[in-house]
């Protein structure tokens, strides 16, 4: 098991190097002169030259790259012009909001998609199979920001069930003392159930939006792999041995069918992390996605850079985690390594 | 029925006629594909002649009739500046369609050619293309597209480019797999023996052979391309107001959703959804024509 973990960790290294090179190239591809850009519109020639030397832009590209890498190693992502704070501090402060939302979105979509896929596979051609097919086809066609807006209109404006789509917590509540940064967890730790319910109410619509968005690939994969497993010999044997349908489906078929589903999670995360940006914009969610969008609009480049890099590193780490999880579920993978 | 008898009388129908007959058969068999094809024709029509048939100027504001709900005069209502939402939705078709077509064509040129070369030549070409594709795949795709547009500049051309780049791995992989299978095929050996150069074989023999699969790939990714571009303009990249474009129109209408003026965001969003839905269905249908074994 340990050797597999190490091997997989080594495989993630080229991805990380690629990510760092691409983000570096993106900084250097800034339109016009970065030094003139950082000096602002009022910058004099001398000021621009000074900034050029200070940023190391007068050096050849490989030297600039080494400098970029050493900065990264120290966790220095530059300073955001809009907030005046170091980008790394900003991102660290906002990351829990995004992570809480994304994880809850994933939980929502898994808890709908997996049962839906299983039911569709156990009864092919039934009503639930058709529902599953419609959901998977429609799900990939729905623009995630559009789904979010429709949910806001229905549940906030028409029904009045959910609070205004403005951030993580209603202004009448104050944030729970920070432990994990996840409001649901922190408020539960502080036993402040009023804040818990309030933050849950804020979370439910954006999480549902993300869930609907990522529903389709999970449901489609669950259905397909359940169908394949249910047609296999060991399921037939289990049935013939007189096991109850529930035991056959849940204990025998489901556990084997989950393997391809876990593999698709990598792709689902790619979608989720991207969609997160749009959902955060719709719900004014104070996460790193809306941070990057605000910076983009203000042409503040360092936060966007930091955001792209953080997202990519998180995505590489998530893929790593998925692969390790795969090894835990499927002993054959461990034997191969 | 007439098709079948006609087919029996002419067993050696010419290539084009046979293909058309097959297409007609698939459209007749699969109602969903036929429906998607009809939608596709509508979208193309709207993109081509939309600006000439809309009842109002999509940019003309009229503050006396701002924020009016849908009526006979304004089918989709009017926005905060009194512009006709229906006219704007129809006119926007051209830009959104253009972005999707252009990015898909561009990624076909980049990813398709790189993938074919990787599969055909193998070795270093394969390793370099594979490494590039892996690096792109290491990013969440929408986030990478954001970064590219932010770095290269906030224009429609860069939206097209960014959408093409994030789709690169998909195309490179499909083209690579298909080219690897055909690398040592009989017709390739024959072409080589008749004295064709390697590049000539690649472009003249392998590429035309994998075209059907690449075209399916293109129509399957069209929907994603439109979603990606609309998402970028929703967060304020690329297209600038007052240009009519679906993503930016939804963004403009978003603020009015909480106060009950649903029509400003709903109609462009629905248009976007229908377009993506149509391309996805059409892609599935085309795949059935080209590759019946992968039918789901």
Count of extended strands of chain B: 0
Share of residues in strands of chain A: under 5%
Q: Kindly state the mean pLDDT of chain B as a whole number?
A: 82
Q: What is the structural class of chain B?
A: mainly alpha
Q: In total, how many beta strands of chain A?
A: 0
Low-confidence stretches of chain A: none
Order of helix and strand elements from N to C terminus of chain B = HHHHHHHHHHH
Radius of gyration of chain A: 24 Å
- Rg calculated over all Cα atoms of chain B: 23 Å
Q: What order do the SSEs of chain A take from the amino end to the carboxyl end, as H and E?
A: HHHHHHHHHHHHHH
So how many helices of chain B? 11
Quaternary? heterodimer
By DSSP (H or I, 4+ residues per run), the number of helices of chain A equals: 14
Overall geometry of chain A comes to: globular
What does this entry look like structurally?
- The complex is a heterodimer of chains A (337) and B (296).
- Chain A contains 14 helices and no strands.
- Chain A has helices at residues 2-28, 34-39, 45-55, 61-73, 87-122, 127-141, 144-158, 183-189, 193-230, 233-240, 245-282, 288-297, 301-329, 331-336.
- In chain A, helix 5 (87-122) runs antiparallel to helix 11 and helix 7 (144-158) crosses helix 9.
- The mean pLDDT of chain A is 83.
- In chain B, helix 2 packs across helix 3 and helix 9 packs parallel to helix 10.
- Chain B starts with a helix and ends in a 6-residue tail after the last helix.
- Chains A and B meet through helix 1, helix 6, helix 7, helix 11 and helix 12 of A and helix 5, helix 6, helix 9, helix 10 and helix 11 of B.
